[in-house]
């Protein structure tokens, strides 16, 4: 079935109040109308306090993809709408994380809402709509984006949410533009720290020096957006045996390959492979470019 197409007019009922805030900042104007496809009810009247924007580098690392997906998944499970731009890397990972958690996500595009951009994101575009999410743009259906439409689009992502979180970004970057628009709007900005010396840590570290909120996990975002203790980001998975618990504890940071985990655990290679496959099946691990990476699930307390 063809997804619903709709338009929200500035000043009319349903126009997201966060977008109207753009008119209060010199040089930032709210769109005359917001064109959308998918769940109109998800966007109509969307309050900034109900949404978080997650952005970052297109050419991110496995660590950046993992962090973005886990943040988005936990925030979506807590009931927040995850907003991003459907670009390669961090943006797509944020949408994927929200979808994996059966949560709500909104993609803000520079082109018209009737097409996937980039074209390689067609599958993600389709799944966002099929899941009850939405795709929005200030440009009408059929519009082909120009170079300047992308930074212009970023102000919408900043305005729709109470907080913008940057996960891996260079200086300068589109993510930096989104964060600056959020600051101008008086919104919160969060940044995920990364390895010292990495060019992809330059953006978040610069923002942290300028007063952005430290984001070490979804709980930091929830406490800031909803209030301390108002919601928990803990995601508890199924029970594990001692072997699975020990093996899971060896997977940290950017993850590890089978050979390294086998050596660290002291298990035979075949047994380690079976145990890791079970951890993946239970949702504790996912495979990213040949490395096992932890998800946001935590084992139940004993």
Report on this structure.
With 302 residues, this protein is α/β, with parallel strands linked by helices. It has two domains: 5-226, Rossmann fold (3-Layer(aba) Sandwich); 235-298, Winged helix-like DNA-binding domain superfamily/Winged helix DNA-binding domain (Arc Repressor Mutant, subunit A), CATH 1.10.10.10. It has helices at 17-20, 40-43, 62-77, 90-100, 122-130, 149-160, 174-184, 202-209, 218-226, 242-249, 258-265, 269-281; strands spanning 5-9, 33-38, 51-56, 81-84, 105-108, 134-137, 163-167, 188-192, 213-214, 235-236, 285-288, 291-294, 297-298. The strands form three sheets. A nine-stranded mixed beta sheet has the order 1-2-6-5-4-3-7-8-9, with helices on both faces. Helix 5 links the parallel strand 5 (105-108) and strand 6. Helix 3 (62-77) packs parallel to helix 4 (90-100) and helix 6 (149-160) crosses helix 7. The longest helix has 16 residues, at 62-77. The protein is globular, with a radius of gyration of 20 Å. 48% of the residues are buried. The model has no long low-confidence stretch (mean pLDDT 94).
- Number of DSSP helices? 12
Radius of gyration: 20 Å
Mean pLDDT: 94
Please identify the top-level CATH class of the largest domain: Alpha Beta
Q: Note the main sheet.
A: 9 strands, mixed
Percent range of helical residues = 25-40%
Order of helices and strands: EHEHEHEHEHEHEHEHEHEHHHEEE
Helices and strands in order:
Elements: E1 5-9, H1 17-20, E2 33-38, H2 40-43, E3 51-56, H3 62-77, E4 81-84, H4 90-100, E5 105-108, H5 122-130, E6 134-137, H6 149-160, E7 163-167, H7 174-184, E8 188-192, H8 202-209, E9 213-214, H9 218-226, E10 235-236, H10 242-249, H11 258-265, H12 269-281, E11 285-288, E12 291-294, E13 297-298
């Amino acid at each position: 079935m063809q997804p619903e197409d709709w338009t929200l007019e500035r000043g009319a009922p349903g126009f997201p109040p966060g977008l109207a805030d753009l008119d209060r900042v010199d040089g930032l104007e709210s769109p005359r109308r917001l064109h959308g496809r998918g769940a109109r009810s998800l966007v109509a009247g969307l309050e900034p306090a109900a949404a978080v924007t997650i952005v970052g580098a297109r050419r991110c690392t496995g660590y950046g993809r993992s962090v973005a997906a886990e943040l988005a998944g936990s925030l979506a499970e807590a009931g927040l709408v995850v907003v991003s731009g459907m670009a390669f890397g961090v943006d797509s990972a944020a949408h994927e994380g929200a979808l994996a958690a059966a949560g709500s996500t909104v993609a803000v595009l520079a082109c018209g809402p009737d097409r996937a951009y980039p074209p390689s994101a067609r599958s993600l575009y389709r799944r966002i709509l099929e899941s009850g999410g939405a795709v929005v743009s200030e440009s009408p259906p059929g519009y082909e984006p120009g170079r300047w439409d992308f930074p212009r689009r970023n102000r919408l992502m900043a305005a729709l949410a109470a907080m913008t979180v940057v996960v891996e970004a260079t200086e300068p970057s589109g993510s930096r533009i989104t964060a600056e628009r959020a600051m101008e709007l008086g919104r919160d900005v969060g940044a995920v720290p990364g390895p010292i010396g990495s060019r992809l840590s330059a953006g978040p570290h610069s923002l942290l020096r300028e007063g952005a909120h430290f984001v070490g996990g979804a709980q930091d975002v929830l406490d800031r957006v909803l209030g301390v203790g108002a919601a928990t980001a803990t995601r508890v998975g199924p029970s594990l045996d001692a072997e699975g618990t020990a093996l899971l504890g060896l997977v940290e940071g950017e993850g590890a390959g089978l050979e390294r985990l086998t050596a660290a655990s002291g298990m035979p290679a075949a047994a380690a492979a079976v145990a890791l496959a079970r951890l993946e099946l239970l949702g504790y691990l996912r495979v990213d470019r040949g490395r096992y990476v932890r998800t946001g699930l935590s084992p139940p307390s004993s």
